[in-house]
Amino acid sequence: MLPLAGVVNPAIWKTFAVAIPAVAALARVLDTHVARLAVPLFAAGAGPTLADIAFGLKVSYDRATERSSGPLPSW
Fold first, then answer.
1. Is residue 2 scored above 60 in pLDDT?
2. Hey, which of 19, 36, 50, 73 has its CA 20 to 30 A from 61?
3. Residue 13 CB contacts under 8 Å (≥ 6 apart), including other chains
4. pTM score > 0.70 for this model?
5. Is the residue at 75 inside a domain?
6. Is residue 50 part of a domain?
7. The three-state (H, E, C) secondary structure of the chain, written as one string
């Protein structure tokens, strides 16, 4: 859901930065082996997900500017 939310509203990208410490805190509360394993997996996945979202938005913008003859929206 977070990648979809990031595409819909790039302001939510900050959520990834907050989500990593939140997952770490939850893992400490749960104090299980599986929960501790989730922290590095989540952190490792958050970086490529942000890169994927940024790349997708950049490519979409570049394609829109190539095909557009008028002004583009500011977003």
1. no
2. 19
3. 6, 50, 53
4. no
5. no
6. yes
7. CHHHHHHHCHHHHHHHHHHHHHHHHHHHHHCCHHHHHHHHHHHHHHHHHHHHHHHHHHHHHHHHHHHCCCCCCCC
Hunting for tokens 């570049």 — which residue is that?
Answer: 62
The number of domains in the chain is: 1
Q: By residue range, what is the domain housing residue 48?
A: 2-65
In a domain, 71, yes or no: no
Closest CA to 73 of 51, 3, 60: 60
Token output for 7: 């595409």
Residues in the chain: 75
Q: How far apart are CA 53 and CA 72, in angstroms?
A: 20
